[in-house]
Predict the 3D structure of the following.
Amino acid sequence: MTASASTATGRVSEDSARRTAFVAGTFYLITFAASIPALLLLGPVLDNADYIVSSGSDTRVLWGCFLDVVNALACIGTAVALFPVVKRQNEATALGFVTSRVLEAAVILIGVVSLLAVVTLRQGNAGATGADAATLVTVGASLVAVRDWTFLLGPGLMPALNALLLGTLLYRSRLVPRIIPAMGLLGAPLLLAAATATLFGYIDQVSAWSAVATLPVAAWELSLGVWLVVKGFRPSPIISGVVPADTGHPSLPVA
């Protein structure tokens, strides 16, 4: 009888909600644990124009690429874990969040493939000199440029869209303290402006302006991950399944 009532009202059990929050928060923390070391490990191939014809640090670069793959998969994991809950607030917006997160992961993987190609070419042409070396350096620079653009369009731009979509869902549903999605909603326009300015060459991709614009969204994602792991979801109508008689859908709090 209790199970039937829970199904009819769309109620989410407390254990299920806590488990969902923990998994989603863990994925968010994994994105930080993977992406930051990856950026450091990839330094040799990103900063050395002659890497493709040098002695190389392939093992280090391969570990960096591996961590970027982990980051991409964790990005998808955050959206997949949260979707069953946040779709109760607005399914179209929740689906948009999943789509944007998958797109971000796909762009990251394109960057990974370009760097793996640099490593493969370096290993197959070790000791190249003269015209061959010059050609390889040009090819290597092109592949690194691809990765730089994917870094701008993936981790540099898509988190702003993610913050707008998921931030709106969490702010309205009150599943977490409103200060957390507010950071994302306020930081998203800054990150979009910085990415656009970088795209058109007004600021450098690595600059004080871009760092400042990134901080609010980074703080939003980190605080969301920590909160979900430690505290879980707060009580909300979309969790309890309170259904108004005239709509047949979970009632939503007034913003």
